[in-house]
């Protein structure tokens, strides 16, 4: 009996906060890790049963051998052995728990042949740890205009849990981007998102009030609290939009249910990840206006049928001439029925940049329905910075193709007021000649956008 109680006491004592240290996918808690002199590594802290506000403090027994920054970047300075110590403190109200652990760094002689160093665009001079340096590929380049705010995040130091992130080119987004690389120790919130406070960064709020947040949204709550959503949920709070994970598939699994270490780094993914595009959903082959006839390029003209009347039928009504379909530069949105035509607004620099990009690479995107704003939206794989239009529209009309911020493509099914003066640019206008006389514009748009999520091919 006494032995059983003793075992229970040990179990309860060990069921609190646990700290594990990881370097490049290797568990190094209270172990020795060898590193060549002049090299760098990112030390990740993985927590179990974390709660409340989490504070992590790093220190080195001998910084002349190996130093460590407040974010856990270890630099090898000279040959020898020293310990890097980590203290994690969780505090909520009167409850406070501190845990300490260490990793012993064995700094060995530098390599005879230095490894090649990949430099970034001259405009950026961040300190990027070697294990997270983006590797150039034949298909990935950094465009200092359109892609200037591309980044990626890595969860718990795992190469398999690395995701591309597009950061918005707004005031808070630029401040976050310029502060990278950054390591966030994030705790779980309500089983839907991870949060982390950063008192060293104070942002200006833009008071964006969405009705819901979706997986991959990177937001700012208050003026210094990051929130990364991994499960869609409704919300009544105000946020500042920072950006989003471009392909969030698997993000919920990677983040898990407890505390995590999230590292944000500028640049493109170190290795190619699966494209965020997916095959279009196959919709019914029967066109909505009738059966038994081939698919026409556009809906039949008002007052006409898809099949011409037989010759000699004196009672057949006179057909109304087909409307003139817009033949200039146009965006095409194909949901699997027939492409919808939007006239390119050439006064917009962002519209023309997107139009030119589509010449060589059409996009397949998943557009989600926004329940309260009568629109479908998706994140584009790059930022499109508007340079010609300085003031946002007062409203978005039904059929408007809109760039919200710099990388959110929206199509509106009804007219919505822009009373909050949100930064946006109308890049396309619906060609109304596509609409038959028996349908209103909202009815026409709702024929193509039906499900909560629509797979859309965007081309020109």
Structure description:
This protein is mainly beta and 460 residues long. The protein is built from 5 helices and 30 strands. The strands form 7 sheets. Strands 11-12-19-16-17-14-13-20 form an 8-stranded antiparallel barrel. The longest helix has 12 residues, at 2-13. Residues 1-14, 113-131, 133-147 and 271-323 have low confidence and may be disordered.
SSE layout and pairing:
Layout: H1 2-13, E1 18-23, E2 26-27, E3 32-36, E4 40-42, E5 44-48, E6 53-60, E7 66-68, E8 73-76, E9 80-92, E10 95-108, E11 150-155, E12 162-167, H2 171-179, E13 182-189, E14 193-197, E15 212-213, E16 217-221, E17 225-229, E18 233-234, E19 240-245, H3 251-255, E20 260-266, E21 330-334, E22 340-344, H4 349-360, E23 363-370, E24 375-379, E25 395-396, E26 400-404, E27 408-412, E28 416-417, E29 424-430, H5 441-448, E30 453-459
Parallel strand pairs: 3-10
Antiparallel strand pairs: 1-2, 1-5, 4-8, 6-9, 7-8, 9-10, 11-12, 11-20, 12-19, 13-14, 13-20, 14-17, 15-18, 16-17, 16-19, 21-22, 21-30, 22-29, 23-24, 23-30, 24-27, 25-28, 26-27, 26-29
List keywords for this structure.
mainly beta; 460 residues; 5 helices; 30 strands; disordered N terminus; eight-stranded antiparallel barrel; eight-stranded antiparallel beta barrel
Brief summary of the model shown:
The protein has 460 residues and is mostly beta strands. It is built from five helices and 30 strands. The strands form seven sheets. Strands 11-12-19-16-17-14-13-20 form an eight-stranded antiparallel β-barrel.
